[in-house]
């Protein structure tokens, strides 16, 4: 299977790099500056299963083929496109991968939320789009290396209607034994919703409180507020027909209200670092879906407002 990985950042660089290191047929689609760096220096992954620890180590460097969008237009054919961009890079990615998809490639997006699915289906048709999501704690350092972080990397993927297809089996075979957990799922759409429900409540807790999960849950009214926030996100999923199980929600609430937790959602980490955030894909889209379903979601609405202010201030200062 010929696989095109869109992006060589925290997600695409990690999974694509590990697959390339395992000998899979992987090519990266990158912006010109990043493409030049990876062509000159290779893609280095530090930490993670079977790799050296981050501190003081050089990691593993792989040299995989690289294309830019301009080169892809007349480039080789691919079987699968793994879309590993941030939500705010989706529109440009849709344009960039168009030639590959129109030439027969299937798209496997690893973004959070569900808005990207609607966009990809509208652009390429439902039969061209798989479901999928990732769990990672990786990030890029100042040298452009992928630091894998403490969370064991994992991806889940499947046909959105739950069917078992040849293309899904082909990717499953390619993804296995590459140094990360690879799971083929017949319920991937429900699982994507379940992750979104948790992630939005997680980010909302950090943004509204300004603190870690432990600080928020230890504050007066913290547990009650977090409980209400998770109930809001679950209500939107229920209106769409994908409410997580009571057991999953109970587990989520236990994690979110752990008074010893120092965790922050990646969106909150990005906000605190002054980076772009995926606010509309994770929070805004839930509010819009709640509005269409007639659901009250005051805490999600307040989170959207706070993130909107951050985004406006960031854009105004360049």
UniProtKB/TrEMBL annotation:
Its EC number is 1.1.1.169. GO terms for molecular function: 2-dehydropantoate 2-reductase activity. Residues 3-158 form the Ketopantoate reductase N-terminal domain. One of its GO terms (cellular component) is cytoplasm. Pfam families: ApbA (PF02558), ApbA_C (PF08546). InterPro entries: 6-PGluconate_DH-like_C_sf, 6PGD_dom2, ApbA, KPA_reductase, KPR-Related, KPR_N, NAD(P)-bd_dom_sf. The keyword NADP applies. Keywords: NADP, Oxidoreductase, Pantothenate biosynthesis. Residues 188-302 form the Ketopantoate reductase C-terminal domain. It is an enzyme of class 1 (oxidoreductase). It catalyses: (R)-pantoate + NADP(+) = 2-dehydropantoate + NADPH + H(+). One of its GO terms (biological process) is pantothenate biosynthetic process. Pathway: Cofactor biosynthesis; (R)-pantothenate biosynthesis; (R)-pantoate from 3-methyl-2-oxobutanoate: step 2/2. NCBIfam families: apbA_panE. Catalyzes the NADPH-dependent reduction of ketopantoate into pantoic acid. Belongs to the ketopantoate reductase family. This is 2-dehydropantoate 2-reductase. It comes from Nakamurella flava. The lineage of its organism: Bacteria, Bacillati, Actinomycetota, Actinomycetes, Nakamurellales.
């Amino acid at each position: 299977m010929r696989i095109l990985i869109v992006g060589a950042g925290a997600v695409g660089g990690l999974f694509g790099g590990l697959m390339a290191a395992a000998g899979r047929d992987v090519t990266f689609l990158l912006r010109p500056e990043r493409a030049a760096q990876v062509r000159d220096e290779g893609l280095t992954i530090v930490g993670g299963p079977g790799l050296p620890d981050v501190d003081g180590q050089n990691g593993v460097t792989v040299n995989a083929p690289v294309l830019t969008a301009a080169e892809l237009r007349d480039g080789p054919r691919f079987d699968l496109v793994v879309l590993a961009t941030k939500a705010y890079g989706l529109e440009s990615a849709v344009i960039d991968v168009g030639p590959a998809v129109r030439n027969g490639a299937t798209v496997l997006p690893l973004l959070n939320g569900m808005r990207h699915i609607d966009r990809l289906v509208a652009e390429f048709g439902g039969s061209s789009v798989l479901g999928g999501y990732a769990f990672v704690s990786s990030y890029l350092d100042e040298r452009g290396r992928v630091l894998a972080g403490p969370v064991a990397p994992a991806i889940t993927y499947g046909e959105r209607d739950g069917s078992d297809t040849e293309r899904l089996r082909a990717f499953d075979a390619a993804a296995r034994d590459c140094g990360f957990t690879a799971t083929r799922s017949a319920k991937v759409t429900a699982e994507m919703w379940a992750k979104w429900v948790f992630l939005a409540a997680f980010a909302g807790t950090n943004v509204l409180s300004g603190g870690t999960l432990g600080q928020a849950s230890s504050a007066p009214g913290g547990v009650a507020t977090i409980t209400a926030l998770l109930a809001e996100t679950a209500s939107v999923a229920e209106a769409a027909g994908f409410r997580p199980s009571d057991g999953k929600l109970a587990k989520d609430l236990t994690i979110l209200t752990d008074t010893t937790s120092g965790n922050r959602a990646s969106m909150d980490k990005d906000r605190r670092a002054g980076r772009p955030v995926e606010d509309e894909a994770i929070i805004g889209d839930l509010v819009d879906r709640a509005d269409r379903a007639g659901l009250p979601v005051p805490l999600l609405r307040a989170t959207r407002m706070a993130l909107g202010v951050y985004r406006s201030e960031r854009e105004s200062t360049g």
